[in-house]
Design goal:
Blueprint lengths: L2 E3 L2 H25 L4 E6 L3 H16 L3 E2 L10 E6 L4 H11 L2 H7 L4 E6 L5 H10 L5 E3 L7 H11 L3 E3 L4 E3 L14 E5 L1 E2 L10 H5 L3 E2 L2 H13 L4 E5 L14 H9 L6 E5 L8 H9 L6 E3 L7 H6 L6 H14 L4 E8 L6 H14 L3 E6 L17 H24 L5 E9 L7 E4 L5 E5 L10 H4 L3 E9 L4 E8 L5
Parallel strand pairs: 1-8, 2-3, 2-4, 4-5, 5-6, 6-7, 9-12, 12-13, 14-15, 15-16, 19-21
Antiparallel strand pairs: 10-11, 17-18, 17-20, 18-19, 20-21
Amino acid sequence: MAIIKTTVNDKLDFDAAVTELKEYFSSLGARKGRQLTYNVLTYGCQLNESDSEKLSGMLASMGLKASSGGELDDADVIVFNTCSIRENADRHLFGNLGVFKTLKKNDHDVVIAVGGCMMKVPENVERIKKSYPYVDLVFDPQQLHRFPVLMRDAIRKDKQLVNISADDYIAEDNFFPIDRKRKFRALVPIMYGCNNFCTYCIVPYARGRERSRDINEIVKELSELASQGYKEVMLLGQNVNSYKGAGGETFADILRAASDFKEFSRVRFMSSHPKDLSDEVIDIMATRPNVEKHLHLAMQSGSNTVLKAMNRPYTIERFQEIVDKFRAKVEGGSLTTDIIVGFPGETDEDFEETLVAVDKAKFDACFTFQYSARPGTKAAAYENQVPSDVVTERFGRLTEYTNRYAEESNKKLVGKTMEVLIEGISKAGDMTFSGRTVTNHLVNFTIPEELGIDPGEDYLEGRLCEVRIDRARPYSVDGILVSLKGEEA
């Protein structure tokens, strides 16, 4: 596979396709007597969310408006941005696609496109070709910069267009119009792809080989975001600390450059690989006040035997060394992780070693997953698959362990007054708001009437505040607003 940078001609083709589609949708809307709408359905990680912001920006530039109906089938252009990491994402996609057969039959002008990581799995593409011929466009993540061109071509030809590339493209984010979904938080991919080839993971096949954006373009984007009033940036990559700039720059250089913008109250990053986490990055986390004191570091297993079978290039002893270093240097920092249960060949002894590793690391939160074979990965062909009932039993035991430590971490906050970046109205409703501390603890809080604060979500979103924590839950804490900090966060 080749890594190809987009050119001026790519941008000219992009702009020409957008202009043609804008005219097409305007004419179609005039015939229907309304402005046409779009709906982008996103599955998966923050990088997929970032891609969807670009898809939304492109669709808006074509003269379409976001659908407000909330239903899958209430838009004129529907784009599925898929994820291939978990099996349930596959079920969601194919379950939802069936809804559109009647819609497409009743209104041939509706455009249905499917992109994202699932489209790099040949079996999924063949299934769409065979069972969902009414899908107009199938494309992969590497083709994001060609989305308007591909959609124009599919509409012109009036038949299904499948475009899956063997090349890995890198288009700087200023190539795209971006419709950012949160007014205070900006997602900033700094690199794409993965070279690790963990035996359970489809990402290197779906997202391609590692390729890093130019540091000058990243800093330019950060500067623009700071001037636009964004209070939080999240630096993204499949393995974000694997960043390698053309001039020898490292992830530490990117993290330092982002934190230099004092307009940002928080600088976050996801996701880190243990093999690439440097002491320099930990030092920056410890000393820069606007760098989040939270590290997400995927352990995956506490057994060296299983880690080797997973092709994870570290031992559990090395992992614990990193944990100890982070705990020692980053005062009050929080540590979260991913763990897979039931990887092929995992024995009772291997699983017990994972429980011991959790006891040692005392993670502030764990994201635990039952192993599911992903087509195209090496582990899917392993013969020593663990029986599902054994996996389920181990998963339940691990969840009890991790929940205990998560609640203990939250209990340490009770009685403290914490700085919180407000994200909006909580899912709990009833004018309860939510936000996160600099250690990424989720805080739900109420506003006492005597403070006389306008509780409007638009007014509070993105503000920094002080919250007194009075209750701990397994996954969050509750509190009461003490004060807002300044007119702007």
